[in-house]
């Protein structure tokens, strides 16, 4: 039987660390000012979200989402002992694409130097659930023999589309830039627990406008009708969130998908080394752990260091803790995610 194997893992975050203390003083060019630009502080952010710092790209126009994806992809390829030319399919999850179209996966393909070979490129738009949705796609492609070396990337450049004023503080303090990548390929085995054991993906479109970023409205003519530099007009440029509704649905979706993953596979927490939840808010993850009775020692978080990097959080968190020596090859991981859409899901796989 053909099953999907994780061949490599890599992640990348930009060098600039923005601590909670600094974020309140940044202007919209990410330059520290003498006076507070946003009414927020370290105490509020830590207590409500668990975030201490996040990473931002340099603000000189030289870095796009595909560049973050490229660095993570190179590290995952090196980890898999493969070269870019070995890849026959790219699946890229992002809510911060380089441009509106074409998708960011083709920019990544070109930057990897493999555009001549013409491999398939998919962009997926499942926001914080992008990694699990992408893994489900990759798993199906590999099991059917459609592709043999899939590069799955979650990459986000959030820092350019955040509102650095009190108006946008509920969302602005949460997000950071970063990328995580995985290489997946087939293996022949009779072990039903080997490799990618389980994936589930769900959505509830009635929650679509509880967390969204419009930028434009294609129904209107012209479809962009505000002055992006006018603060009284430009709220459409920034993400909007009904935080409490998202929070409650996130806890419910992640608990349900975690419990379903265990029920459907017949596994218990004794069979699983690590629980890696999406990193949106430490309080969400603590609540999920409490309700789903997840052993505390098995929970991995990285939101303290990176904030919410949306589609990148799961591979970034796993790679972070692998670099710290905690996660090892052969460990079995249960991951559950929730994001804008609403979308959610879970996966169980062996690293
Ligand atoms: O990746 C998936 C998508 N995202 C999520 O899952 C996020 C889900 N939601 C959340 O994490 C939380 O709802 C937030 C962290 C966004 C907000 O926490 P909360 O405990 O729900 O706070 P709140 O929205 O009820 O706001 C409480 C107060 C408000 O002030 P008033 O009305 O009580 O005077 C806010 O204006 O906190 C204020 N506030 C802030 N104060 C300081 C909101 N953001 C900030 C801030 N700094 N950054």
Task: Give the helices and strands, then pairings.
Layout: E1 2-12, E2 16-19, H1 20-23, H2 42-49, E3 53-56, H3 65-79, E4 89-93, H4 104-111, E5 120-124, H5 130-143, E6 150-156, H6 169-172, E7 178-188, E8 196-203, E9 211-212, E10 240-241, H7 243-265, E11 274-277, H8 282-291, H9 303-306, H10 313-323, E12 332-339, E13 343-350
Parallel strand pairs: 4-5, 4-6, 11-12
Antiparallel strand pairs: 1-7, 2-3, 6-7, 8-13, 9-10, 12-13
The protein binds oxa(dethia)-CoA.
Q: What attributes does this structure have?
A:
351 residues, Peroxisomal Thiolase, Chain A, domain 1, 2 domains, five-stranded mixed β-sheet, 13 strands, 29% helix, binds oxa(dethia)-CoA
Description:
A hairpin with a 3-residue loop joins strand 12 and strand 13. The protein has helices spanning 20-23, 42-49, 65-79, 104-111, 130-143, 169-172, 243-265, 282-291, 303-306, 313-323; strands at 2-12, 16-19, 53-56, 89-93, 120-124, 150-156, 178-188, 196-203, 211-212, 240-241, 274-277, 332-339, 343-350. The strands form four sheets. Strands 1-7-6-4-5 form a five-stranded mixed β-sheet, sandwiched between helices. Strands 8-13-12-11 form a four-stranded mixed β-sheet, sandwiched between helices. The two termini are 19 Å apart. It is an alpha/beta fold and 351 residues long. The protein has ten helices and 13 strands. It has two domains: 2-188, Thiolase/Chalcone synthase (Peroxisomal Thiolase, Chain A, domain 1, 3-Layer(aba) Sandwich); 196-350, Thiolase/Chalcone synthase (Peroxisomal Thiolase, Chain A, domain 1, 3-Layer(aba) Sandwich), CATH 3.40.47.10. It binds oxa(dethia)-CoA (UT7).
């Amino acid at each position: 039987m053909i099953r999907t194997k994780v061949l490599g893992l890599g992640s990348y975050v930009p060098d600039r660390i923005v601590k909670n203390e600094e974020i309140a003083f940044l202007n919209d060019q990410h330059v520290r000012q003498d006076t507070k630009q946003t009414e927020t502080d370290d105490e509020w952010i830590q207590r409500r979200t668990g975030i201490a710092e996040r990473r931002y790209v340099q603000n000189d126009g030289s870095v796009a989402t595909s560049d973050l994806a490229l660095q993570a992809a190179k590290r995952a390829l090196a980890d898999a002992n493969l070269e870019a030319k070995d890849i026959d399919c790219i699946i890229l999850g992002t809510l911060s694409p380089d441009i509106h179209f074409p998708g960011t996966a083709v920019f990544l393909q070109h930057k990897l130097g493999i555009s001549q070979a013409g491999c398939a490129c998919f962009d997926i738009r499942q926001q914080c659930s992008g990694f699990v949705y992408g893994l489900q796609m990759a798993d199906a492609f590999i099991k059917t023999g459609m592709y043999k070396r899939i590069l799955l990337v979650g990459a986000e450049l959030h820092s350019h589309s955040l509102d650095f004023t009190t108006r946008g503080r509920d969302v602005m303090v949460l997000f950071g830039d970063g990328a995580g990548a995985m290489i997946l390929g087939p293996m022949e085995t009779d072990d039903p627990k080997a490799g990618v054991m389980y994936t589930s993906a769900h959505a509830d479109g009635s929650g679509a406008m509880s967390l969204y970023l419009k930028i434009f409205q294609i129904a209107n003519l012209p479809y962009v009708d505000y002055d992006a530099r006018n603060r009284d007009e430009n709220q459409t440029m920034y993400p909007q969130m009904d935080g409490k509704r998202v929070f409650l649905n996130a806890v419910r979706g992640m608990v349900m998908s975690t419990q379903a993953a265990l029920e459907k596979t017949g596994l218990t927490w004794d069979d699983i080394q690590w629980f890696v939840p999406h990193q949106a808010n430490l309080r969400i993850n603590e609540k999920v752990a409490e309700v789903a009775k997840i052993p505390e020692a098995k929970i991995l978080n990285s939101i303290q260091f990176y904030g919410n990097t949306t589609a990148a959080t799961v591979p970034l968190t796993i790679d972070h803790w692998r670099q710290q020596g905690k996660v090892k090859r052969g460990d079995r991981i249960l991951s559950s995610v929730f994001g804008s859409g609403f979308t959610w899901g879970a996966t169980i796989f062996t690293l």
